[in-house]
C-alpha cells in the first residue's frame, strides 16, 4: 500500500510539472518597444530556466519531505522563492502586454480607483515609472491591489520576489527591470525602456486581473 501511495504521488508530481506558457502574440509583435530578439531570449531562455529550476527544486523538496529532512526542506526555500517567483512574475508580465496596448483604462472600477487614489492617470504613471527606474540592481516595479483596504499601491520587489507572497498585495501589472529584459535594445538606459512599456500595457488584461482580485 505504501509503495502504491508513493507511486501515486510520483505520478501526481509528473502531472503537476510547471511548463512555459505560450505567448499570446509573436516575438516581434511588441516592436518597436521591445525587440523580437529580446522577447525570444527573455521568454524561451530566461523564463524557461525559471520553470526548469522550479521543477527541479520541487522534486528535491518532495524527496526531502518524504525523508523528513528538515534542513534540506529549509535549504530549498530560496530556490523555490527565486524560481517560483520568476515563473509567476513573467507569466503575469507576458499576459499584461499587447501590441494593441497602451493608453489608459477607459472605464470601470479600476479607472475609478486610479482616479480616486492618484487623482490622474499620469500621476499613477509617474509613480510606477519612478519606482521601477529606481529599483537598485534587479527587480520589479508593481501596481498591486490591497484587498483589505480596497486600495492600489505602487511597490517594488527585489530580484524575483513574487508580489502576493512577499507583500500580500494582488499583482495587477509589473514592470521587469532586470537587465535581461531590456539591455540588448536599451543598453543601460532603463528609463527609456520603462517609458516604452507604457505603450504596450494591455489595460484590458490588467482590468480582468483587478476584477479577479475583487
From TrEMBL:
Annotated Mn(2+) binding sites: 42, 90, 176, 180
Keywords from the named record: Manganese, Metal-binding, Oxidoreductase
Recorded GO MF terms: manganese ion binding; superoxide dismutase activity
Catalyzed chemical reaction(s): 2 superoxide + 2 H(+) = H2O2 + O2
PROSITE patterns: SOD_MN
EC assignment: 1.15.1.1
Any one Gene Ontology cellular component term annotated for this protein: mitochondrion
Gene3D superfamilies: Fe,Mn superoxide dismutase (SOD) domain, Iron/manganese superoxide dismutase, C-terminal domain
Pfam families in the cross-refs: Sod_Fe_C (PF02777), Sod_Fe_N (PF00081)
UniProt domain Manganese/iron superoxide dismutase C-terminal: residue ranges: 107-209
InterPro entries: Fe/Mn_Superoxide_Dismutase, Mn/Fe_SOD, Mn/Fe_SOD_BS, Mn/Fe_SOD_C, Mn/Fe_SOD_N, Mn/Fe_SOD_N_sf, SOD_C_sf
Cofactor: Mn(2+)
Manganese/iron superoxide dismutase N-terminal domain ranges (all copies): 17-98
Family: Belongs to the iron/manganese superoxide dismutase family.
Family annotation (PANTHER family): SUPEROXIDE DISMUTASE 2 (PTHR11404), SUPEROXIDE DISMUTASE [MN], MITOCHONDRIAL (PTHR11404:SF6)
Role this protein plays: Destroys radicals which are normally produced within the cells and which are toxic to biological systems.
Name of the protein in its database record: Superoxide dismutase
Protein's organism: Magallana gigas (Pacific oyster)
